[in-house]
Write a structure and sequence with these properties.
- The chain is α/β, with parallel strands linked by helices.
- The chain has a single domain, classed as NAD(P)-binding Rossmann-like Domain (Rossmann fold, 3-Layer(aba) Sandwich).
- The chain has 8 helices and 7 strands; from the N terminus they run βαβαβαβαβαβαααβ.
C-alpha cells in the first residue's frame, strides 16, 4: 500500500532541488501532484521528466507571491482533482547582502515567497482541507532561520518567521489540519551550486557539518513525505531540523 494512493499533493517551487525531489517521491507513493514554478523553461523540463515517473502530475507556471496567479493555480487544481490533501510550501526567494547595504526592496524580496506566499497559498488551500476534514501542510524553512548568518539576514528573518507561522497555523487549524516545518541545512541544489561555485568551497562547507557532507535533495524529501503522510498523524506544530548535525555543533576550539 502506497502512502498517498488517492491523495493530491500541491508543491510550490517544485521544478528543481528539494521541491522536485518531493514531487518525484510523492508520485512514486501514488499521489497526484501539482508543482508550481516561476521559470517556464525549467518547469516544462521537470514536468516532462516527472511524467516518466507518473502521468498524475500537473505543472503550473505561478509566482506564489502573486495573489491572482495563486488563485488561478489552486482553482485549476481543485477543478481537476476535486481536493488537495497535502501542501508543501517550498518556493524560495533569496536576496543576500549585509543588512547595512540592503535596500528596502531587496529586504522585501526575501519575504515575498518565503513568508507572504505561504500566507497567500494557505488561505486558498487550508479552507478546503477543513471541508474534507483532513489535510497536512509542510513548510520548508532553513537553518539560517535558526541561527544568525552573515549576508543572509533578510532571508533568515523570513525563514524564522515561517517557523513561528507554522506553530500558529498548527494551533489555529487543529484538529483537522496538521502543520509542520522542515528545516534543511546545506543541500545539493542548483541554488547551492550557484552560491558555492568551487570544489574547495564545497569541501570546506562539507567539513563544517558533523556528517561531513552536503545533503542530497531526496534526503530532505523523505522526512517531508513522512510529515505529509498518516505515518505522522499525531505530529503537528513541530520543527524538524535536517542538517547533518550542523546546528547541534558548538564547534568550540576547532
Amino acid at each position: 500500500m502506497n502512502w498517498f494512493d488517492g491523495k493530491v499533493i500541491y508543491i510550490t517551487g517544485g521544478s528543481a532541488g528539494i521541491g522536485r525531489a518531493i514531487a518525484e517521491q510523492c508520485l512514486k507513493q501514488g499521489a497526484s501532484v501539482i508543482i508550481t514554478g516561476r521559470n517556464k523553461e525549467t518547469l516544462q523540463k521537470t514536468h516532462a521528466e516527472l511524467l516518466e515517473v507518473s502521468e498524475k502530475v500537473l505543472a503550473h507556471e505561478a509566482d506564489v507571491s502573486n495573489n491572482d496567479q495563486v488563485t488561478a493555480s489552486v482553482d485549476a487544481a481543485l477543478e481537476k482533482f476535486g481536493r488537495i490533501d497535502g501542501l508543501v510550501n517550498n518556493a524560495p526567494s533569496i536576496h543576500t547582502g549585509l543588512l547595512k547595504d540592503l535596500s528596502y526592496d531587496a529586504w522585501r524580496t526575501n519575504f515575498k515567497a518565503n513568508l507572504d506566499g505561504v500566507f497567500l497559498i494557505c488561505q486558498k488551500i487550508i479552507p478546503q482541507m477543513h471541508e474534507n476534514g483532513t489535510g497536512s501542510v509542510v513548510n520548508i524553512s532553513s537553518v539560517v532561520g535558526l541561527k544568525g548568518t552573515q549576508y543572509m539576514g533578510a532571508y533568515g528573518a523570513a525563514k524564522a518567521g515561517l517557523i513561528n507561522l507554522t506553530q500558529t497555523m498548527a494551533i489555529e487549524n487543529a484538529p483537522n489540519v496538521r502543520v509542520n516545518c522542515v528545516v534543511p541545512g546545506a543541500v545539493m541544489t542548483p541554488a547551492t551550486e550557484r552560491a558555492i561555485p568551487t570544489d574547495d568551497m564545497m569541501k570546506h562547507t562539507a567539513n563544517t557539518i558533523p556528517l561531513k557532507r552536503i545533503a542530497e535533495p531526496h534526503e530532505i524529501a523523505s522526512p517531508v513525505l513522512f510529515l505529509l503522510s498518516n505515518q505522522s498523524s499525531f505530529i503537528t506544530g513541530q520543527t524538524l531540523v535536517v542538517d547533518g548535525g550542523k546546528t547541534a555543533d558548538l564547534n568550540a576550539g576547532n
